[in-house]
Structure formats: structure tokens, C-alpha cells
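Aim 2, interim progress: modelling of the zinc ion-bound target.
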Amino acid sequence: MGIQVKTVIVSDFEQNARLVIDQASQQCMIIDPGANTDHLFELSDPYDVTMIVLTHCHIDHAGGVKHLRQLFKEHGKKEPSVLYHSQEIIIGEYIETIALQYGLSPTRYQNAPSPDEILDNKDVIELGDSRFKCLFTPGHSPGHVALYYENDDFLLEGKHADDKQCNHLLIAGDTLFYGSIGRTDLPMGNHEQLLESIRTQLLVLPEDTVVCSGHGPNTTIRHEKLTNPFLEVPD
Ligand SMILES: [Zn+2]
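Predicted structure of the complex, ligand included:
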């Protein structure tokens, strides 16, 4: 049966939030709900939302989690569990401060709730019958994770629905982008660590893996290996 991946662009930072649905069980996980929570809640209404998974806790990825959970509560639905890496907790506690610094509303962007489950030692996330490998990819932020889906039975919908005729799928967060990589000038960013994560965790994936990034269009592991200027090995 496989999975559906619906992408919605959210927040002032044009972040790609995603609903991932296991088609057999109709279980759903919401990835990186940075804002636009009413819309995400509405889209997720037909499904059994069991989890909110954060690749990391920057404002544009995690600023909507608290409000989204509140919507489930207000509508008498079970609140989904929140999963992210423990090294992101400190970053999620500063979202409201960062919002004010950017001149944005700290009621629109709220601090991330504490995780119900940490991803530190979790190799696999299960959603119904579907399995996602949880890859530890620090650098853009200290506890960043990416999710890898090995099978070819996925369907992309919404924004960036181009599957690039690939047979595997990566939810990359802010590690790897079409022609670029994540920024590392934010607090707790580390450029060398990011390059190491990309090399050891992402470029080792099959070349026909579609990369669904946190911002902008999809790309593939093959395309980035061949053309990404940030990944060139110095002579
Ligand atoms: Zn980020």
C-alpha cells in the first residue's frame, strides 16, 4: 500500500511541512509544523495522527507544534506524541525569543513542547506498517535528524510533488537542498559537522533517492553528488 507524502509550505520562512500517511492504516505523522497550524490540522483531519516529528527545533520547523497539539485537544481528538532529538530541546525553548528578534508574533511561533519521545537512540520510526530510518545528521543544528524511506511505494502530493522518478525517499530537513546545504551561521551550527553528516549519512544512500528538503524544490542524491558546489572534494 505504501505512503503518501503531502507537502505544504508554511511560515514566514517558506518551510516545507509534511503530512506522511501510511495508506494501509491511515495513520499520519506531521513533520515540521512550523506555522499555518489551522491548515495543517484541517488537512490531517481524515487521518489518525499519531505523531509530530521534528527534524530540528528552529522556529520555522517547530514554532507551530504547541498550537497544533492544542487544536487536537480542542476538537476532542487524541493529542499526537511529539518526537525529536534531545539536543534540540534548548533550541526549541528559544523560539518565542527568536520570533521577537525577527519582529514576528510569539503567539504565532511558540516554544516547542518537551518531547514525549526523544530520537537519540531510535533507529526506526514506525507509522502503521511503514518504517522510516532515523538518521542523525547534526551540523545545521546539534540534534538534527533526517528520515529515510527505503521502499518505492510512495506518492508525493501538494507542493513539490515531483518524485524525480526515484525509488527511495529522504525527508532531509535543513541538511541538503537543491544546489545547496543548510546554513551553519545560527547558534550551535557547525559547518564541518554538517558536511560530515551529509557525506556519511546522506550521500551513502542510493542515488535514486528523492530528497525532500525543508525549503525549496526536491532534488536527488545523484544530482547533488554530481553538481552541489558545497560538496566538492578539494584537490
Ligand atoms: Zn533550520
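The mean pLDDT is 97. The CA atoms of residues 19 and 44 lie 7 Å apart.
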